[in-house]
Amino acid sequence: MSDLPDGIRPLTPAEAQTRRKRSLAIALTLGALVILFFVLTIAKLGPQVLQRPL
Amino acid sequence: MTTLSNSVTADTPTFAPAVGGEVRDFFALLKPRVMVLVIFTALVGMVVSDVTVNPVIAAISLLMIAVGAGASGCLNMWWDADIDALMTRTAKRPIPDGRIRPDEALAFGIVLSVGSVLILGLASNWLAAGLLAFTIVFYAVIYSMWLKRATAQNIVIGGAAGALPPVVGQAAVTGHVGLESLILFAIIFIWTPPHFWALALVKSGEYAKAGIPMMPNVAGPDSTRRQIVWYTLLLAPLGLAPVFFGFGGWLYALVGVLGGLGMLAGAVQVFRLRQGESERKAAMGLFAFSILYLFLLFSALLAEQGLGLYRAVVV
């Protein structure tokens, strides 16, 4: 039984693949942003990032 | 746009859930070829600044300048979808071709604009971020929404947006705007009219169909040809300004002189040949050569300043 509201048909295989690819691209972009902010933080802080009181 | 009502009856047609465009279509919205040009000119703006910068921060800044340029291209395509559909050169773009909905493109463009400006500000400085924001607003709002459909001077004034990347690049690595990037700005700014009007001479029918007041449609082809010559007469010596201001060496001077002469020869050909196929060939020849000219000028600066090939010209 479908969970879709009345009047909404299910996705065709081609549409589902398009949506999957787009979701993957969004996930990769978010991952890239995490890496970008991490690398940027290290680059801005410089070697001092290793200097911390223990 | 189709909207779904809450009261769907048995004889209401069924709708597909919103799927959205393909990844490659979103990428096409960013005008990738323009992005490459922006990366290149912004990089030259950075290397002529003669400062030591963290390569990671410089690379992230460059990426954000490119994304900001892509975002402004996306917003331009969103706004211009109606006229893009009327011209063969642009009819296959993702929005007029129906592959991406206008609201998707608008959201994509806004998110990338805000994101690129914020990250550039965090990575480098807020002067560079402000200049990038100005560039995006200038291209998407001042040029696309206003000038393009309002005046034959559209690409002259709007050319400022395309000329700004070296200025943003220099601001990103130095925190200020110097004479070097302003000269590069001036070169691209004066280069833009002969470059675009050469194309507009050939595509004037298409622009007329879309109702865009390009110079050949408003002032006529002969006036446009005269103006191409005047702008090229200004551009050829201006192209040598980096030599006189000490950041262009022998290699740059050679490229500047030969390229400037090539541009002048192309402009004279466009002025002289006004009939049939030779007219089209002259205009497309100048259009293609103008791209090569700008590429070689900036490549010479990159080679001299980036690879250490700079040898001063005594003037």
Automatic annotation (TrEMBL), chain A:
Keywords: Membrane, Transmembrane, Transmembrane helix. The chain crosses the membrane at residues 24-43. It comes from the Bacteria. This is Uncharacterized protein. It comes from Methylorubrum salsuginis.
From TrEMBL, chain B:
Its main location: membrane. The keyword Flavoprotein does not apply. It holds the Pfam family UbiA. GO terms for cellular component: plasma membrane. It is an enzyme of class 2 (transferase). It comes from the Bacteria. One of its GO terms (biological process) is heme O biosynthetic process. Pathway: Porphyrin-containing compound metabolism; heme O biosynthesis; heme O from protoheme: step 1/1. GO terms for molecular function: protoheme IX farnesyltransferase activity. It is found in: Cell membrane. It is a multi-pass membrane protein. Its EC number is 2.5.1.141. The chain crosses the membrane at residues 34-51, 57-79, 100-120, 126-143, 155-176, 182-202, 228-245, 251-271, 283-303. It catalyses: heme b + (2E,6E)-farnesyl diphosphate + H2O = Fe(II)-heme o + diphosphate. PROSITE patterns: UBIA (PS00943). Keywords: Cell membrane, Heme biosynthesis, Membrane, Transferase, Transmembrane, Transmembrane helix. CDD domains: PT_UbiA_Cox10. Carbon 2 of the heme B porphyrin ring is defined according to the Fischer nomenclature. Belongs to the UbiA prenyltransferase family. Protoheme IX farnesyltransferase subfamily. Converts heme B (protoheme IX) to heme O by substitution of the vinyl group on carbon 2 of heme B porphyrin ring with a hydroxyethyl farnesyl side group. NCBIfam families: cyoE_ctaB, PRK04375.1-2. This is Protoheme IX farnesyltransferase. It comes from Methylorubrum salsuginis.
